[in-house]
């Protein structure tokens, strides 16, 4: 009887561990072929993604439920639905969903992602995005596997997130 209780206890404890949701918060730096750079914050959690540039002249992108919204950083009460280039965010989430078993390369019809892991394999160090229209490297720094409230993936209103 004690063994049965012990097995049940172990089963329920391990299933809670495996069902724990993974979410990452990272600083990012985009580096373009011409040497231009942009910095910001990346949040990823279960099919949701927030890509927020630090520059107030730029914007924040929220990807959730196959919809991409753009919110200007200097006018957070205004947003627009983006219909083009949202597939890149879907592929970013597919890469995230492969964690910790990341491949070195992911390909789609219009672009390719090259993935480099951190030395300690804790998460992605660099993503290279290669396509006819876009070539850049995205460096991820200070990534933390941390709980992120769903309100940070809302676009109206846009809640401020500080890493």
Helix and strand topology:
Blueprint: H1 2-19, E1 23-32, E2 37-45, E3 48-53, E4 59-64, E5 67-72, E6 79-82, H2 87-98, E7 105-107, E8 111-117, E9 124-131, E10 135-145
Antiparallel strand pairs: 1-2, 1-10, 2-3, 3-4, 4-5, 5-6, 7-8, 8-9, 9-10
Give a short summary of the structure.
By secondary structure, this protein is of the alpha+beta class. It has one domain (21-153): outer membrane lipoprotein receptor (LolB), chain A (Clam), CATH 2.50.20. It has 2 helices and 10 strands, in the order H-E-E-E-E-E-E-H-E-E-E-E.
The CATH architecture term is Clam
CATH superfamily: Lipoprotein localisation LolA/LolB/LppX
| Structure classification | alpha+beta
What is the CA-based Rg, rounded? 18 Å
| Ends apart, CA distance between termini | 49 Å
Strand order of the largest sheet: 6-5-4-3-2-1-10-9-8-7
- Which percent range describes the beta-strand content? 35-45%
What summary fits the major beta sheet?
10 strands, antiparallel
Give the helices and strands as they follow along the chain.
HEEEEEEHEEEE
Shape: globular
């Amino acid at each position: 009887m004690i063994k049965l209780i012990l097995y049940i206890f172990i089963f329920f404890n391990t299933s809670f561990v495996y069902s724990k949701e993974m979410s990452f918060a990272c600083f990012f730096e985009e580096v373009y072929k011409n040497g231009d750079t942009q910095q910001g914050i990346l949040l990823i959690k279960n099919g949701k993604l927030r890509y927020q540039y630090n520059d107030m002249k730029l914007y924040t992108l929220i990807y959730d439920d196959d919809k991409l919204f753009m919110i200007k950083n200097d006018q957070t009460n205004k947003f627009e639905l983006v219909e083009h280039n949202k597939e890149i965010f879907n592929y970013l989430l597919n890469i995230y969903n492969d964690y910790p078993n990341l491949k070195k390369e992911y390909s789609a019809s219009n672009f390719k992602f090259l993935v480099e892991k951190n030395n300690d394999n804790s998460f992605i160090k660099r993503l290279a995005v290669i396509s006819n229209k876009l070539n850049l490297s995205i460096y991820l720094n200070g990534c933390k596997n941390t709980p992120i409230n769903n309100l940070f993936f809302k676009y109206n209103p846009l809640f401020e997130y500080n890493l």
